[in-house]
């Protein structure tokens, strides 16, 4: 189902990523694929939202929307920290799913929970699947720009390819659709800290923070909260 030719490359933290020659683009930061997933998405988005839970909030699964399932690394590191006090319904949109045979060359099972990794990739597309009592994944083959988006979203992992590679993913109209399905206090993180993206999100009503990026990687990333 994948659209592009893909090759494997090692990143600086020893974890692998996929490279698309046609776009001259990597699926993860070359400074560290696992480091990027852990810091930008798991820590600065999901775990941060869990830490801000108020005492009067019911413990319901957070609805997390990922733009770009990619290799599934973000999903796996999130599943590893989902707990009874911070469960998650993880919905991931991917227009061109990567074949599992290609993913095997990354050997992520040696870096993450191998059982969760396998279960996430064995889960059928288009169905909500319980991976653990606290983590449900729903992988959708979908075009973020035109297909209906799930509503009631609490956390967004915005992990599209760079604006220079896929500018249509980073437009005001595209983000407006996304903001329309986000709950009050929902937050979004992305590796892209460009000024134009900060301003765009601010105009759409989000409070945008520039926060420190992963160790050894980008100096800054963005976290935006819908107030």
List the helices and strands and how they pair.
Layout: E1 7-10, E2 16-20, E3 25-26, H1 33-51, E4 62-67, H2 73-79, E5 88-94, H3 100-103, H4 114-122, E6 128-132, E7 135-141, E8 153-158, H5 172-179, E9 182-190, H6 195-203, E10 206-212, E11 220-226
Parallel strand pairs: 4-5, 4-8, 5-7, 8-9
Antiparallel strand pairs: 1-2, 2-3, 6-7, 9-11, 10-11
Helix pairs in contact: 1-2
Question: Could you give a quick summary of the protein structure above?
Answer:
With 227 residues, this protein is an alpha/beta fold.
Structural class: alpha/beta
Quaternary status:
single chain
**CATH-defined topology:** Rossmann fold
Fourth-level CATH superfamily: Vaccinia Virus protein VP39
Rg (C-alpha, Å): 16 Å
Overall mean pLDDT stands at 94
> What is the first-to-last residue Cα distance?
38 Å
**Helix content estimate:** 10-25%
Q: Low-confidence runs (pLDDT<50, min 5 residues)? A: none
- Count of spatially separate domains: 1
Task: Give a short account of the largest sheet.
Answer: 8 strands, mixed
Overall, the morphology is globular
- Please count the helical segments: 6
Number of strands: 11
What's the CATH class label?
Alpha Beta
The largest beta-sheet arranges its strands as 6-7-5-4-8-9-11-10
Spell out the helices and strands N to C.
EEEHEHEHHEEEHEHEE
Description of the molecule:
With 227 residues, the protein is α/β, with parallel strands linked by helices. The chain has a single domain, classed as Rossmann fold. The chain contains six helices and eleven strands. The protein has helices at residues 33-51, 73-79, 100-103, 114-122, 172-179, 195-203, and strands at 7-10, 16-20, 25-26, 62-67, 88-94, 128-132, 135-141, 153-158, 182-190, 206-212, 220-226. The strands form two sheets. It has an eight-stranded mixed beta sheet with strand order 6-7-5-4-8-9-11-10, sandwiched between helices. A hairpin with a 7-residue loop joins strand 10 (206-212) and strand 11 (220-226). Helix 1 (33-51) packs across helix 2 (73-79). The chain is globular, with a radius of gyration of 16 Å. The chain starts with 6 loop residues before the first strand and ends with a strand.
